[in-house]
Amino acid sequence: MRFMVIVKSNEDSEAGQGPSAELLEQMGKFNEELVKAGVLLAGEGLTPSSEGARVVFSGAEEPRVVDGPFTESKELVGGFWILQCRDREECIEWIKRMPNPGGEAGEVEIRRVAEAADFENMTPEVEAMEGKLRAQSAGQA
Amino acid sequence: MTVADTRSTVEAVWRIESPRLIAGLARMARGDVGLAEELAQDALVAALEQWPDSGVPRNPGAWLMTTAKRRAIDQFRRNERYAEKLEEVGRDQRLGEGVLPDFDAGLDDHIEDDVLRLLFVACHPVLNTQARVALTLRMLGGLTTDEIARAFLVRESTIAQRIVRAKKALAAAKVPFEVPEGDERVARLSSVLEVIYLVFNEGYSATRGDDWMRPALCEDAMRLGRVLAGLMPGESEVLGLVALMELQASRAKARTRPNGEPVLLLDQDRARWDRLLIQHGLAALALSEQIAEGAYGPYSAQAAIAACHARARTAEETDWARIAALYEGLGKLQPSPVIELNRGVAVAMAYGPAAGLAVVDAVADEPALKDYHLLPSVRGDLLEKLGRSAEAEQEFRRAAEMTENARERALLLNRASAVAG
Amino acid sequence: MRFLVIVKASPASEAAGFQPSAEELTEMTKFNERLFAEGRIELAEGLTSSADGSRVLFEGDAEPKVIDGPFAETKELIAGFWVLKGESLEEIVELMKQVPNLGPGEGVLEIRPIDE
User: Concatenated DSSP letters for B122-149?
Assistant: First the structure.
């Protein structure tokens, strides 16, 4: 199973302030543990939300673009990992070991990545439709 | 926490900690892997008993190790047989009351080396393949006997017995707790890779509708491969195997229709290929190639072929010349008519049907391919492209007779009719 | 440059038993195939609802606290994401304006550059 581990932003990450040397070192070791255990598939940090944007869809009109920064820190993503674990409990156990030398309050969310088996509506008819689409687009290419 | 909650946490901790726990205990038990595994299981039972009340400890790995050590000391004190066992190993002439096994021998420094030793012991060729697989998944994969049984579609008691017999066989053969050097190392590493790839294929060959445990075997195998790559960073074939598994697994979502029918690689919807696994696999392959300075082993060669497909956004963009060259290299490492057949297909795609047919015809009479329906199927395709219609029709009909798959038979018969005109 | 494009959750995506319809899956597949043909996709995944998820809360030296989902504040949640290659934020914004299935009703995408 795969899990997306979402590290929430905090004031420092939003201010573009890099992690402390201690945190950087401990995070590096933690990442290495995840690699050595064979569970790390991907991991990225994000720039502050001031460099981002939102696209808001509301029905028929043209979608609206809102530039960052976004003030609700609690919902902002600061970085993420994709981990391969047997189940959610294993993923939780790994994340409990995440270093936090500064002792700051922080929140990490763990969510399951959907797999093909999770989609009931991938019917043979949809498959056939896709096959037609592929053939069409191949013809256009 | 409820007992049920604690149980899942204990199991999760077990999955993470058990390889190091067993490896560390094996060091203390002077290489007795069987005893180490029993002591570890005792600690697991203790955790299941105590943690619902005491709570999950802050450092669960350390708790398990301390508990296992305490039990080992108790056992040693009470059990003359244990003391005798240690005497048999003959390491310490003074063994007797009061002299304990070496519990603190540089534990942390050696723990990764010990995990590697454990893996090599679990895959020792004195054990048959089934035993190696069961022991590896149990001691290094963190799986329970029940999980292993369900994955291999056998009874739990069957796996339990396999593990008991395996431990006895290792003890009887006095298999040392070490990673061999030199020529033996190459052979033994090959044995380890074989076990991991076997587990992978067991999971990969599982079809939809099978117990969900079986596809999870692919993940277990990839994980073991990555762990081994971390423990042996200079070994290009380990990285080659990781790359091969990840690139193969990347196609898993695209290779069957909802009704379970297989889709040939060249017909697969490449947008369904798992990009995460492709990236990871290509990175592992690149590292492997860098270490081996361009020399391929069997696994890295197969991975390089898989990479050619993974890199092609459409089937038309496939680098067939490179695939043909890689098959040639693979054929030199592991001569086989099937590999030559595959090489023939690649040569045809790269250099035209005549060139491909020449390669295929050179192995057409090999006994190994006598019942292999893909041989006449491939010959038929190449003959058709060369305008040799009568021969092509004959080959398609021959292939149709040989295949067991009804859909494939229909397709082949259609091709036979079409080329007959 | 690379970007994380987040699909924010909605009451629909969080509802128990939520399944994208066959049309929605088809439309999303078409869109992804286009992105794929342009060589943009590094990752494209959906997440199951927060009912399958958990949060781990860290504070000081205390043992991290685990809370299982589901989580009520839908606007804080993610339903899916892409990691895409692009020349600039503007380019990805223009591209993602064409994403299917996010209307009627409010749908929100958040586009964040990855720190290289």
Answer: HT-TTS-HHHHHHHHHHHTS---HHHHH
Q: Any idea what DSSP says for residue A113?
A: B
Å between A112 CA and nearest CA of chain C: 6
Verify whether the Cβ–Cβ distance A55 to C113 is below 8 Å.
no
Q: Which domain holds residue B392?
A: 371-421
**Based on the structure, what is the number of domains in chain B?**
5
Residues from chain B that touch C43, judged by Cβ atoms under 8 A, are 275-276
How far is residue B326 CA from its own chain's centroid?
22
Closest by Cβ to B269, choosing from A89, A92, A130: A130
- Kindly report the pTM of this predicted structure: 0.89
Domain count, chain C: 1
Same domain, yes or no: B54 and B136: no
Element (H, E) at B20: helix B3-28
Helices (H), chain C: 11-14, 22-37, 89-96
- As a whole number, mean pLDDT of residues C15-34 equals 85
- CA nearest C40 in B: which residue? B275
Q: Which CATH class is domain A2-140?
A: alpha beta
> In terms of domains, do B360 and B392 share one?
no
pLDDT above 90 for B260? no
**Of C12, C4, C27, C6, which is closest to residue C104 (Cα–Cα)?**
C12
Do B119 and B216 lie in a common domain? yes
Q: What is the pLDDT of residues A86-105, one digit of tens each?
A: 999 999 999 999 998 888 88
Q: Is B262 contained in some domain?
A: no
Quick check: B271 and C33 CB within 8 A? Answer: yes
Tokens at residue B258, please? 């909802």
Q: Are residues B116 and B226 in the same domain?
A: yes
The reply to whether B250 and B197 lie within a common domain is no
